[in-house]
Structure formats: structure tokens, C-alpha cells
Amino acid sequence: MVKSERLQADRIEPAPGSAWLVGIAAWFIPGSGHLILKKWGRAALMGGVVWLCFFLGMAMGGHMFDLSTGQGSSVWLQVPPMIANLGSGALYIVSWLLGIGFADDPQQAARATYEYGNTFLLIAGLLNYLTMLDAFDIAAGRHS
Amino acid sequence: MRHFLVMCLFAAMAAVVFGAMAKDTPRERWQYGIKVFAEFVIIGLVLGWILYFVPW
Fold this sequence. Notes:
The complex is a heterodimer. Chain A is elongated and about 55 Å long. By secondary structure, chain A is mainly α. Chain A has helices spanning about 5-10, 15-30, 30-35, 40-60, 80-85, 90-100, 105-110, 115-140. Chain A has one domain (about 15-140). The longest helix of chain A is centred in the C-terminal third of the chain and has 26 residues, at about 115-140. The relative contact order of chain B is 0.14. By secondary structure, chain B is mainly α. In chain B, helix 1 packs antiparallel against helix 2 (about 25-50). Chain B is elongated. Helices cover about 85% and strands about 0% of the residues of chain B. Chain B has one domain (about 1-50). Chain B contains 2 helices and no strands. Chains A and B meet through helix 4 and helix 8 of A and helix 1 of B.
């Protein structure tokens, strides 16, 4: 690390504990991080998009990923999409507990919108990671 | 047509999040969001036509 980079790194203040709590809340319930920070517009927009994306994905017959392998493929291939799905927080966990959206049903897979549904579910999680990072940065005072 | 609409819906949702978190002023956010939306749609269409001619 060169001297200027080290000086810059020294200037970055550590995030307060509340920022981590906001980040966790933002991950668990999409939009809640911005709600805690009283950023109503952002909460509605960013959180709303995640919820909408998730439910559209479910309505299209999409399938979420966990570590179980339905078609004999390696469990490691399930990990990257599972991480993306996990971004939806409670939406993923509740669906997993209720067994909704995880079945490897050939009739569901035959639907024209099945792959779109998968993509929407993946994107919902990834967008929520971005939303979570945005809420964390605001709470840490790094972003307005 | 349904495929295009779904792609536009996807692009719009991604553009909202990208636009909301990327820039400082509301005007810049709108501009960036519209730019991201247009990029998703245009690149999606271009890729769609390229893949149309790929024989598999």
C-alpha cells in the first residue's frame, strides 16, 4: 500500500454499531433499513422494487435455490444462486420454511415464464443486497 | 411481445434501484436511472438478435 492510500485508509472511520443493525434489518425485511433511517421515499422505491420483483418472480412460477440438488448436479452449483436468493432475507426464509417456491416440479418448469421467474427471484435478492448496502452507508454517514 | 415487456419490467426495476443509490441530486438520479434502463433494453435487444443467429 502506498503512503497516500494508507493515509486515505486511516481517514475512513469505522461504522457505528447502529449502522450494522440497520444493515441487518435492511437485509431481513427489504426496505426496513431506509424506514428506520426515515428515508421514506427510498424505502418505498428500493424496498418496493425488491418486494415487487420477488412476488412477480413467484407469480411467474420461478424457483428458488437451496443446497438440495434435484437433478443430480453438484451441490456447489447451487451455492451462487442460493446466495443471490438469500438476499431477499425474510422472504426467502419464510418461503423456505413453508416450502413455497422450492419444488422441482416439471409442470412448473414447463411454464413459459419459469426462467423469467427464476431471474426475477435472483434479481430481487441481488437488488436487496444493494439496498442493504445503501442503507448501511447512510447509517454510517458515508452517503446521504 | 410478452418477453419484451418482461425485459422492460426487469430493466425498470433495476434502473430504479441503481438510479436511487448512484447519484447525489434528484435530477442526476433520474438521468442515471433512464440511462440504465435504456442500456438494459438496448443491450438486451442486441444480444437477443445476436443469439437469434447462433445455431444451437
